[in-house]
Design goal:
Nucleotidyltransferase, domain 5, 9 helices, alpha/beta, metal-binding, 2 domains, 10 strands, single chain, 19% strand, 340 residues
Length: 340
């Protein structure tokens, strides 16, 4: 099958990045992302502004993806797009564009679940990166999601643990806001954590049964701790910023690794893959590497550019679905709360 020259265009517009990618038989030819800086002023994504920016960005981004891939739109075999989950206004822009383009070119339309795409990004052909064998456990960690998924095949996935309140990325961003750091705060906390003492301050881990997560209590604990300390010493944050960041990161990573340990023990699966924006975090990557020695895991971390929201992961799912002739109807609608 792969000997056929299959070109798939992937379009991603679930949040605030407009992205397009062209894949050829599992190899990425282009991966273009237009980020929206405007949200930094608001300390979070403003949905109305996001969808407007997608409308401005989508045509130039797709055009650039085709040019970088060195192909014309008439060579495409199918258009894959993010159907959900995500921000409704943002998803509608990508969905409408993908439908129109596929209809105009008279080629199949393929709908993609954004969370499945984070997991299947591991199957992009990339030198130096190994692909996990089935079954494996995938932990998807991002600004909007925290899940542990048992992956038995490309499209046979079962969510066995998820957050009951906030996502891990939100815990990073809210902690950053309390500390007066910019948005998104994750990369900044990660950078400072490497300079601090992770055991300087102790935060209690939330007690949640089974494989589910909770981060709202941790956010509150951090807020109260900072309020108490700054009351006693107004320069507390300034004087201890690296230690505070290291302690927050140490606690968050501890929560994630504890649940992975439990999931691995319960399922007997020792192949562990991570995906989603927070998987770019150096502390999490280090903790997984240690897990290989400690628990006999084999861990899989995608290339950095495939961890955050991107269209290459949408394109690879489009390619895998194309091989199965698994196409969407032109009546398909975007779904903000699409489940795996």
């Amino acid at each position: 099958m792969a000997s056929q020259n299959i070109y798939i265009l992937g379009i991603e517009s679930s949040c605030d990045d407009t992205a397009a990618s062209v894949i050829h038989n599992g190899n990425i030819l282009s991966n273009v992302i237009a980020s929206q800086k405007i949200h930094e002023e608001y300390g979070g994504v403003v949905p109305e502004l996001a969808s407007r920016a997608h409308q401005q960005n989508i045509v130039p981004v797709v055009d650039q993806a085709l040019k970088k891939a060195g192909i014309t739109k008439s060579q495409l075999h199918a258009i894959a797009f993010t159907r959900g989950p995500g921000l409704m206004g943002s998803l509608l822009v990508g969905t409408s564009f993908a439908k129109s383009l596929a209809f105009g070119l008279n080629i199949p339309l393929i709908d993609v679940n954004h969370m499945q795409a984070h997991i299947l990004a591991h199957f992009i052909n990339e030198a130096g990166y190994k692909k996990p064998p089935f079954p494996f456990l995938a932990m998807t960690i991002s600004g909007g999601h925290t899940q542990i998924v048992k992956v038995s095949d490309y499209f046979d996935m079962e969510v066995i643990g998820e957050t009951i309140d906030d996502a891990v990325g939100e815990a990073y961003d809210k902690s950053g806001k309390i500390l007066g750091l910019g948005y998104p705060a994750g990369p900044e906390i990660d950078k400072r954590a490497q300079l601090g003492n992770p055991k300087a301050f102790k935060f209690t881990k939330p007690k949640v049964d089974g494989l589910n997560f909770s981060f709202s209590g941790l956010k509150t604990a951090i807020l109260y701790f900072i309020q108490k300390e700054t009351k006693a010493n107004p320069n507390f944050i300034e004087e201890n910023i690296n230690d505070i960041c290291a302690s927050i990161q140490y606690t968050i990573i501890g929560i994630l690794i504890d649940k992975l340990k439990l999931a691995s023990k319960q399922t007997g699966i020792k192949h562990i893959a991570i995906g989603g924006g927070v998987s770019a975090n150096s502390g999490i990557r280090d903790a997984l590497k240690k897990g290989e020695q400690k628990f006999g895991w084999t861990t899989y971390v995608p290339k950095f550019e495939f961890t955050t929201d991107n269209a290459a992961m949408i394109a690879i799912v489009g390619y895998l679905k194309y091989l199965e002739s698994d196409y969407a109807s032109f009546n398909v609608t975007a779904s903000a709360r699409l489940k795996i």
